[in-house]
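so my prof wants the structure for this chain in the tokens format not the other one, which i didnt know existed until like an hour ago. anyway here's the sequence
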Amino acid sequence: MLTAETNLTNTINDCQSALNQDNLQAYISGECEGNASCTLSFFDEDGNLDSNLFNNAAGVPSACFTGNSMLFVTAGCAIPDADLQTRQVEGLVIGCIFISVALFTLVYLDYIRQIAKNNFVEWDVKTVTSGDYSVEFDITEEFYAKFIEVHGHEKEIGVPMIVHFRKWITEGIENRLSQMPDLGFEDEPVTEIKVAVTQFAFDNAELIELLKQRGAAITTDNFDGMRELDKKINDLKKEKLSKFSTPVSCFMTFENEEGAQRAKKFEEATLEEENAQLKHLRIWFETDDEELKKKYHIELQAASEPSDIIWENRHFTPAERRKKEIVVVLTIGFALLLSFIVVFISRQYTNEKAAVYPIVDCTPYYENYGQTLESFAITEYKSQ
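here's what i got, hopefully its the right format
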């Protein structure tokens, strides 16, 4: 058996080496390219092997043309023009369908968004809370220090500075909003805006955390731990009393809708060119330093619902919040990128392994080559 396979291998190698590959390829291309079928002949008119197709026509083994000898030719199939046009039309139709689906999806999503917006307005009207009449703004350390420097001496004896500041900031907001044009949210024009309640938030996260621990100690009857926490709380208040009594945010609730809407539109109204007469309302302290002007500015915005506020986090400035948002976005983006890389590499590895042993229908090979398929396979394997 081994001798027969060796002889077959030698014969195949001799047949392959006898072929003139370049001339044969040119001959096959000329006879078959562009045709549905073609007939090839390796002999000339006299019945001899064509010398253009063989390197040594006289030395070609006769076994190359007898028995089950076959010539393997790999050729690419050209798509007829009619089929090509049909495929182009089908591709255009499919593309139009995809575009139509995408447009429908965009319109549907916009419809859903508008419906949700209308539902929110309806819900908001039915569930009016103090938050709908409230605004909030941050208070910088520089702003509060400037207030103490300029207006601290006006404080009455025995009145805490924070109480004096609440009165001053409330009157300042009321006076500024009263100078803005009426927006028409009340039945009659409102000439004097009034603030119902002014509340501050402080940088007291450490104190709140200790108070939480103290409450947990009381709940579990850990009175020794409670006394220890009481001592820590008292020491912390002595050490950072000034910090705990410095406001970092302010919440104002107005007596009517007109006041709340003027406050929410204060930024926009005082920056518009046509309202140049209102720009002076943005100034709380006179200074030539542009950086201090920004720190002395108050930016009014709609207040969050009280239940949505984490009071111990109110000391974070907008810049700090923005930094945290950037860190979160970058972290999520990095995680998504990493997962994409892992999935991509895994998929590529899977495709490489799948390509080694692809699923192939071998029935045509068995039908064409019969018992000789195994011999050809062994020969090809040994020739690599």
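also thought this was worth mentioning. Strands lie at 134-138, 195-202, 247-254, 301-302.
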